[in-house]
Amino acid sequence: MQIPIIIDTDPGIDDAAAISLALCHSKFDVKMISTVNGNVGIEKTTANALKLKQFFNSNVQVHRGASKPLLNQIVDAAPVHGESGMDGYQFPPVSESDLTSVHAVEALKNLLINSEEPITIVAIGPLTNIAILLSSYPEVQNHIKEVIIMGGSTGRGNVTPLAEFNIYCDPEAAQVVFNSGLPLTMVGLDLASKAMFTYDFVKSFKEVNETGRMLYNLFQHYRSEDFDIGVKVYDVFTILYLLNPQSFIVKEADVQIELDGKYTKGATVVNFNSQYPNCSVVLSPIGSEFKDIFLSSLKNCK
Fold it and tell me: Would I find Cytoplasm among this entry's keywords (predicted)?
């Protein structure tokens, strides 16, 4: 049986990997892609989502969402992903006519309340759209099966010493989502740090298919931490986890977002000893199965 999902995203090179697998895998029914300001500005993240839709000749609707955080100043990750957000591969130009005019939050509401079954939201960018959705239309909660979040960390950050980028971009939105009462799974920095994509592994993508060559070229321009060792492909682990959760170590925790700290704003405060956990935290892979899951999924792509 297929898993109906919505992808809320700010493409982004690692977003491109997650979207590629999701659009092509028979286990997923991608109902919609909503875009958000994050790795680059909303115009570029939306254009990148449209490029991927066109690359895969997909019929999935793309909706443009929030152009700025709820309260925070805009930050971006262009030094990591390139000026376009997906530097490294020459996609054909896309047309604005491919973009659906309804704002992402309205589209999310309409899709959810009219769905015959609960839908999983895969949130791989800042959580602005999801927070606005839950605050404006609380009735949608009964139509959401769970939210898989790429964000946060149980320890150190990657944009400040303690804050992960997606949460730091809009910590107030993250606090809304983490306290929504919805079933949540946090796929944070811990996982990708323990499941590096080595250069030999990335190089092997070229030989798989056209999608593999596209991702290989994008990854040549992806400047994640420890770049001399390999790349941390954060967002793709949301999809790999959904494909085979048994391949990962998960613990329950209460996760709160630091909103006021001068040096700690955007940090995810993770309490594994709480009697009232609000989140499942994916900590690490079991062995190297994640590579096999990735490659077998990549083979489903064009």
Answer: no
Q: Which helix (H) or strand (E) holds 64?
A: strand 61-64
Q: What is the pLDDT of residues 224-240, one digit of tens each?
A: 655 567 788 999 999 99
DSSP string, 240-280: HHHH-GGGEEEEEEEEEE--S-TTTTTBEEEETT-SS--EE
Each residue of 120-162: pLDDT tens digit? 999 999 999 999 999 999 999 999 999 999 999 999 999 999 9
Q: What is the mean pLDDT of residues 169-185?
A: 98
H/E element holding 211?
helix 210-219
Q: How far is CA 138 from CA 90, 109, 146, 182, in A?
A: 41, 9, 15, 11
Domain that holds residue 175: 1-298
Measured at the CA of 283, the angle between CA 277 and CA 285, to 5 degrees, comes to: 140
| CATH number of the domain within which 242 lies | 3.90.245.10
Q: Which of 201, 152, 192, 146 is nearest to 14 (CA)?
A: 192
Number of domains the chain is built from:
1
Measuring CA to CA, which residue among 218, 156, 176 is closest to residue 66? 176
Is the pTM here over 0.85, yes or no? yes
In whole angstroms, give the CA distance from residue 1 to residue 282. 24
